[in-house]
Amino acid sequence: EADIYQTPRYLVIGTGKKITLECSQTMGHDKMYWYQQDPGMELHLIHYSYGVNSTEKGDLSSESTVSRIRTEHFPLTLESARPSHTSQYLCASSQSTDNYGYTFGSGTRLTVV
Amino acid sequence: AQRVTQPEKLLSVFKGAPVELKCNYSYSGSPELFWYVQYSRQRLQLLLRHISRESIKGFTADLNKGETSFHLKKPFAQEEDSAMYYCALYRSYNTDKLIFGTGTRLQVFP
Questions:
Q1: Which of A92, B20, B29, B85 keeps 20 to 30 A from B47, CA to CA?
Q2: Which residues fall within 8 angstroms of residue A98, CB to CB, at 6 or more apart?
Q3: Average pLDDT over residues A16-28
Q4: Nearest to B38 by CA among B98, B81, B97, B71
Q5: 3-state SS assignment for residue B79
Q6: How far is A106 from chain B (nearest CA, A)?
Q7: Alpha-carbon distance A10 to B47, whole Å?
Q8: Per-residue pLDDT tens over the stretch A32-65
């Protein structure tokens, strides 16, 4: 089934660890996004990609990095996790030719202890 | 600066009552606006978009450029409407992206 998948759903990790949050979509969308959301707050764009080998930083500064080697895959990496990185991370995708509707993944809730 | 404001964090109504979730925006260009909904334990999903002028699950939203508003309305709330609702503005220049409001939690009591 065409969809967007995020793993893991929940992650608790110690300070200083390197982590990668996975995001894959099987809808053939060219654009992909990472949003960060703290409880009760708005979603903030931290990374986006318009296609393979295209990555840009969003409006909210983030110490994370992303890569887009394949159309369907847009992983987010934190080289050294800190408690300030504790948040929910939402991946989304869209198609340029669509009316800008985003499809969101289920999210990864990250806790750094 | 582009901004989306949802003034109510929580809106509680009884089943059958009318519902209006408020959304105001600031944007210098021609706005494209959306409502997203997140039901309990489900992912964020598109509810409706203003360019489609559609009614989804009984909800409608009209863009009022004079008041810079895009309020979400439903004449008779149902318990299954209980969810988190986000208004979003599409910015099409520089970085094209969705700018979200802080969300309003709708609680519909039986």
A1: B29
A2: none
A3: 96
A4: B81
A5: helix
A6: 5
A7: 26
A8: 999 999 877 788 999 999 999 999 998 887 889 9
Q: Which residue has the higher pLDDT, A62 or A87?
A: A87
Residue B94's alpha-carbon distances to A56, B45, B90, in angstroms, are 11, 25, 12
Pairwise CA distance, residues A51 & B90, whole Å: 19
What is the distance of C-alpha A66 from the center of its chain? Answer: 8
Per-residue model confidence as pLDDT tens digits over B4-21? 999 999 999 999 999 999
Cβ of A48 and B45 within 8 Å? no
**Residues of chain B contacting A101 with CB distance shorter than 8 Å:** 34, 46, 49
B8 contacts chain A (CB < 8 A):
no
B97 touches chain A (CB under 8 A): yes
Calculate how close chain A gets to B15, using CA atoms only, in Å: 25
Check residue B90 and report its DSSP letter.
Answer: E
Q: CA-to-CA distance for B20 and B57, rounded, in angstroms?
A: 14
